[in-house]
Design a protein that fits this description.
- The complex is a heterodimer.
- By secondary structure, chain A is α/β, with parallel strands linked by helices.
- Chain A contains 9 helices and 19 strands.
- Chain A has 2 domains: 232 residues, FAD/NAD(P)-binding domain, CATH 3.50.50; 127 residues, FAD/NAD(P)-binding domain (3-Layer(bba) Sandwich), CATH 3.50.50.
- Helix content of chain A is 34%, strand content 26%.
- By secondary structure, chain B is mainly β.
- In chain B, 7% of the residues lie in helices and 35% in strands.
- Chain B is built from 2 helices and 9 strands, in the order βαββαββββββ.
- Classes of the chains: A alpha/beta, B mainly beta.
- Chains A and B meet through helix 5 and helix 9 of A and helix 1 of B.
- The complex binds flavin-adenine dinucleotide (FAD) and iron/sulfur cluster (SF4) (2 copies).
- Flavin-adenine dinucleotide binds next to helix 1, strand 4, helix 3, helix 4 and helix 7 of chain A.
- One iron/sulfur cluster (SF4) binds next to helix 1 of chain B.
Chain lengths: 368, 139
């Protein structure tokens, strides 16, 4: 690899959003490079051993890692360049700074799609830095990618889909999951995911929190307590559990460093996981030629990441001079499918949050 | 009641999901549009083949066959070790609470399985609506 590479479309992040963007852009004839820091493409999908929700066109019913394999194979078949072990450390106008296997170089593109995903949130309490306390995603990486069980007796914090699914997968890996602690009065994840672990005998304690973690050199005990109406621990409700692992599944935050560095304008949205770049209906940020897709544009699901990726890939290709009337039609179809995915009680809140982001972009664009 | 197994769908929320509809070769399950609609089962069309049970990512579909005093309950199972036909295991309810010993009458995979097993337990008919799984084996 030379010191300065050039392509039509550069995609940062090889998860469902990035791979889908790459396939869509490639289909217009554009030259596409995907840059991902991991040893194989797929992003979050690589460690998802469960079958996915969604519809057939979103690979529903397939296990996540198989979806990753399929998308990557399609990319290779169609001539998308997949650069693994490649970290994009900076963005300078339309040029990415990249480090790959010890070598630094640049990649300049007509249009760039950021599909960097999201990172796990932490939760601070006395003892939270003890070895044995970790993100649920980290635990999932251990068990499903590296086949290592990092603890035998586990408590999970967070009853969203990630907490529920990782609890189930820890059971599959042979751990004992003593329970799931959830501060909210209700389970946040899907009822069917909760039902899976309930059937397996795992209790879910809503309106509870972790008070502290204790241990000499490593986690040995976790104390939880019930919460009152105002979210304060109820004295006397404390319970201690002997565990060697405490998993935190308390939300994800869009991984937006590159978008900040590029000078994108942002808006805060609690529902989308934090500060997200303003973007148009075409997923273009406030920096011309810079697009976003997937969890970086608001934490959601693989199915929405695939559609946003498609939209961003097509729009980026059009920006790079590969537009056509057929492409406009495909973008409209992708938007339709996104609307359908964002219906229902779980999706409609996110739909409003997105519309807010697009309105912000339109205000910015009108004031320009 | 019917003398063949029929699907029992326990999918209470409007979530964006429809592999059950796609999996059924007899068109017995309908989600339709939008995809967040809850699945509807047409009992008359269901043959009890179990393809939807293995396909459902929520593990939310079961098969129940009632005949005389007994019932056979089939559920998706994704843990090791696997039980064997003839083993007597502990049947559990939706909260994982034990409901008594039950013989395993079938352990199988279907076209939609990709690793998911379908386990069938014979239970008293009175427990047909209660039994939804088995205690994991420690062997
Ligand atoms: C436990 C769990 C279960 C889930 N289950 C489901 C489910 O059943 N159905 C569903 O639809 N969704 C599910 N999801 C959500 C889904 O996995 C994510 O929404 C989806 O993967 C987001 O796709 P993405 O492409 O935006 O990001 P990611 O999949 O996170 O991919 C981003 C990629 O970019 C890379 N990257 C980031 N920054 C850089 C950089 N600077 N340089 C190079 N590479 C970089 C990352 O390493 C990563 O590989 C689940 C998530 C979790 C955690
Ligand atoms: S058991 Fe078979 S026939 Fe019945 S609903 Fe499921 S897939 Fe259709
Ligand atoms: S496949 Fe399962 S979880 Fe999905 S809609 Fe059908 S019954 Fe519900």
């Amino acid at each position: 690899m030379a010191g300065a590479e050039v392509t039509d479309i550069a995609v940062v992040g090889g998860g469902p959003a990035g791979l889908s963007a790459a396939l869509a852009a490639r289909q217009t004839g554009a030259e596409v490079v995907v840059v991902d820091e991991n040893s194989a493409p797929g992003g979050q999908l690589r460690k998802q051993i469960h079958k996915f929700f969604g519809s057939k066109e979103h690979h529903a019913g397939q296990r996540g890692f198989r979806i990753a394999e399929e998308l990557a194979a399609a990319c290779r078949d169609r001539g998308v360049e997949l650069w693994t072990d490649a970290l994009a450390y900076g963005i300078f106008d339309h040029t990415l700074g990249i480090v790959r296997r010890g070598t630094a170089f640049t990649l300049t593109a007509r249009a760039i799609v950021l599909a960097t995903g999201a990172s796990e949130n932490a939760l601070a309490f006395p003892g939270w830095t003890l070895p044995g306390v970790m993100g649920a995603g980290a635990a999932q990486t251990f068990i499903n990618l590296h086949r290592v069980l990092p603890g035998r007796r586990v408590l999970m914090v967070g009853a969203g889909n990630v907490g529920l699914i990782v609890s189930y997968q820890l059971l599959q890996a042979g751990a004992e999951v003593l329970g799931v602690v959830e501060a909210a009065p209700r389970i946040g994840g899907y009822a069917v995911h909760a039902a899976k672990i309930r059937r397996a005998g795992v209790p879910i304690w809503t309106r509870h929190t972790v008070l502290r973690a204790d241990g000499r050199g490593q986690l040995e005990e976790v104390t939880i307590a019930a919460l009152d109406e105002n979210g304060r621990p109820i004295p006397g409700s404390e319970r201690a559990f002997a565990v060697d692992m405490l998993c935190l599944a308390v939300g994800l935050t869009p991984l937006t460093e590159l978008a900040w560095q590029a000078g994108c304008r942002f808006e805060y949205s609690a529902l989308l996981g934090g500060h997200v770049p303003l973007h148009s209906e075409d997923m273009e940020t406030t920096v011309p030629g810079l697009f976003v897709a997937g969890d970086v544009a608001g934490v959601e699901e693989a199915s929405t990441a695939l559609e946003e990726g498609r939209l961003a890939g097509l729009a980026a290709a059009a920006y790079a001079g590969h537009g056509s009337p057929a492409l406009e039609k495909e973008k409209a179809a992708a938007r339709e499918r996104l609307l359908a995915l964002r219906s229902g009680p779980f999706g409609s809140g996110r739909r409003h949050a997105y519309e807010e982001i697009v309105r912000g972009w339109l205000r910015w664009s009108g004031a320009r | 009641m019917e003398r063949r197994p029929v699907a029992v769908i326990e999918c209470p929320e409007e979530i964006p999901c429809n592999p059950c509809e796609t999996a059924c070769p007899h068109g017995a399950i309908r989600v339709g549009k939008p995809i967040t609609r809850r699945p509807e089962l047409d009992l008359a069309k269901c043959t009890g083949c179990g393809l939807c049970v293995a396909a459902c990512p929520g593990l939310a579909i079961f098969l129940v066959k009632e005949e005389g005093d007994t019932a056979e309950v089939t559920f998706p199972y994704e843990f090791l070790s696997l039980p064997r036909v003839g083993d007597v295991v502990t049947a559990v309810n939706r909260d994982g609470e034990p409901l008594g010993a039950a013989p395993v009458v079938a352990v199988r995979q279907v076209r939609t399985s990709d690793g998911t097993w379908l386990i069938t337990l014979a239970v008293p008919r009175s427990l047909a609506d209660e039994v939804r799984g088995m205690r994991r084996l420690n062997r």
